[in-house]
Amino acid sequence: MTSAGADPTGILAAFAAGLAFDAIPAPVLRRAEDLMLDWFGSTLAGKGARPVESLVRFHTQMGPSDGPSEVLVHRTLSSPLAAAMANAAASHFAEQDDVHNGSVFHPATVVFPPALAVAQALGRSGAALLTAVVAGYDVGIRVGEFLGRSHYRTFHTTGTAGSIAAAAAVGRLLGLDAAQMRHAFGSAGTQAAGLWEFLRDAADSKQLHTAHAAGTGLTAAYLAADGFTGARHILDGPQGMAAGMSSDSDPSRLTDGLGTRWALAETSFKFHASCRHTHPAADALQRVMHAHRLAAGDIARVTARVHQSAIDVLGPVIDPQTVHQAKFSMGTVLGLIAVHGHAGLAEFDAHYRAAPVVAFRDKVRMQLDPEVDAAYPARWIGQVEVETVDGRRLSARVDEPKGDPGNTLSRPELEDKAVRLAAYGGGATEAEMRGVIAAIWSLADAPLVPRLLAP
Amino acid sequence: MTSAGADPTGILAAFAAGLAFDAIPAPVLRRAEDLMLDWFGSTLAGKGARPVESLVRFHTQMGPSDGPSEVLVHRTLSSPLAAAMANAAASHFAEQDDVHNGSVFHPATVVFPPALAVAQALGRSGAALLTAVVAGYDVGIRVGEFLGRSHYRTFHTTGTAGSIAAAAAVGRLLGLDAAQMRHAFGSAGTQAAGLWEFLRDAADSKQLHTAHAAGTGLTAAYLAADGFTGARHILDGPQGMAAGMSSDSDPSRLTDGLGTRWALAETSFKFHASCRHTHPAADALQRVMHAHRLAAGDIARVTARVHQSAIDVLGPVIDPQTVHQAKFSMGTVLGLIAVHGHAGLAEFDAHYRAAPVVAFRDKVRMQLDPEVDAAYPARWIGQVEVETVDGRRLSARVDEPKGDPGNTLSRPELEDKAVRLAAYGGGATEAEMRGVIAAIWSLADAPLVPRLLAP
């Protein structure tokens, strides 16, 4: 069935079902808490955004008007399914949630919403929630790696691998055994979906994809607990996910270092408020401008030397018409960096179509770089060449962008980012956020996952 | 963007948005009523089936415990989303619902559940419901034809094209304009999913696929009514459905005969209680046995000459372990025909592993036939060669299986089938079904779509 010889899907499902809190190293647990806070801020940053509010409205109207699980942006309660979908819809909008480089997968937005909603519904402990989250990350990331670059060319891996990640996290909270977890994977994978086509039109599908992944994964796990069966080889079978949606899948990635390599700890925080594919070049541009004390007006031309996926995802965005689309415009991101020093949520809102930014944008081009491309997706190298108005040719390189595990954010930096994200959409005051931060930093000892905002 | 030159997605969306009741020929409306009754019976036949009850339980628990829309197998009420998903889960289980040959697509199970649930929720007329159903069928069938045979090799077209079909039907009931309908298609298509992998394990995913299609399509349409946008070229764009999930898509099929060719009227009713790929051979075997007055014991060997998709779908099922899997076993179906004269729900339940059926099953093989394969999927030709115990070589051919448009079921035959299906799972008594039948036959004149079973 697979080139890995053994049974990677079975091994992965057994890992997720059997993962014990005590087996997870303390630094991984601390990183899981970091990621939870980062996710929480990202969720509140989605409050008020039109597509987010559409989805939250729909799922809360179609679900019950009361229940055990928080809908964070509205501070209301509903069923775990409706809450998970609403929170997942909210948490990927600001493009400030985490990313795992090797899998090009955003784990938080598909793992935390179903895990939190179900932990609240079942009255689980903080330790159980953290364990489930580690299971979700480590499964989802490996599925993303397995599906490979060919998959990502057409499919939004966060949507597709996200269904399996959500199923793993919820399945762990439900206490599924290995066989049931495998059924949950089967039911999640056969619902996995998400196409990049929407980017060309700046359409709202990204929020739909994360909600869909959270909802289908949660559904799959609950069904498995009730005896509902799924395909045994949903990932690598002859009519499974890879057969249908990938041409370079690698089954060995599904079990790579299970239980010793903690993929969750490899996850990066976002520093710029844009598509991750723009970050390496943004960091490199900051470096060259800082080193040579350049202002935007000093620069005649920028060449970002990038990997192919950056061209695939960002290339179609020539003249962004919305803030969201601008986050996928390499020129706009570099323009905000050059003109305003930052590409944060506030800079995007205020300046993404301002004349100086647009003028800079049109000086930027992307070029495929063989070395950068070969390193990707394991490493996201940033390399820019700058031609100055006075004829100098300068360049800079960043081997690990800000927020990556080797260049990570400290807890004070994470707290600051979360407080700003919460304030951005009016989702929570700083005082409220201090309470949430304290709750998350002490989650491992909490006998019960608390409500975080709802009364 | 497409080889069809124009904008087939836009044309199809405009058709669905603009379809008027008065533009639909009376025979097409009558056929839509026929299909509704056939679907209704199939839904009740799912009552009590383990995977159906799992899904119904899940969606009714996650949804509100009251609402405007009927959950038919439980006679309860919930939100349109929960009811649509529950009813879609139920209606494809017995494998007695309709099929469109050319698209290898089962329209009823993904169109009627969301259409009925939303018509009840919005208080629409019977004419509005029938109009929406015609829109759903004609869109879904064309999307299935567009995605082609390569898609069907790995993907369950009823699950994938089904999302768009459901969006079209619900979008018509919501009164979406052409632009909104196109957004609904975009949101539905980017959630489209369903892989055949589950068949190898006789897993429960088929019920999940129809529920998923109904739910995602309904969601897409409601979101579009609320201003949520989707990809403009979700079907034929460079990162759309065909790009990701087909290698032989044909955009011209999306608009083929729109408004003059009514694809709904091309839909076939099922006569045998098995996968449609078994039906042509089953009819041909009945013919040859009848013509030569053969009993099962007279037959030494049967060769079913089939199209490639029959081998793809049925080939992996060698030794079926469940009734459901047996419906995908050519040998079992022909065995039931040979031994019991019928392959109905009751025959499957009682005899699918009985020794005489298993003995006959092992005499059956499938062989790819170039002429049968070339005619497929437009025509499903049945051709069998029989070798008798006494050494005769006989054969028979059926050009249009029972239930196809040219060999269709009469209203009395449809009523009889529906009453039997309703009785099968204890879903409704004959008296109750007579009331439902009367309601459906007079639907075109009903100012309000009535409740059909719930108190």
Automatic annotation (TrEMBL), chains A, B:
Q: Which organism is it from?
A: Aquincola agrisoli
Q: Where is the MmgE/PrpD N-terminal domain?
A: 12-252
Q: Indicate what this protein is called per its UniProt record.
A: MmgE/PrpD family protein
**Family, similarity comment:** Belongs to the PrpD family.
Q: What is the lineage of its organism?
A: Bacteria, Pseudomonadati, Pseudomonadota, Betaproteobacteria, Burkholderiales
Q: Which residues form the MmgE/PrpD C-terminal domain?
A: 272-442
Annotated GO molecular function terms are: lyase activity
- Entries under InterPro entries matching the protein: MmgE/PrpD_sf, MmgE/PrpD_sf_1, MmgE/PrpD_sf_2, MmgE_PrpD, MmgE_PrpD_C, MmgE_PrpD_N
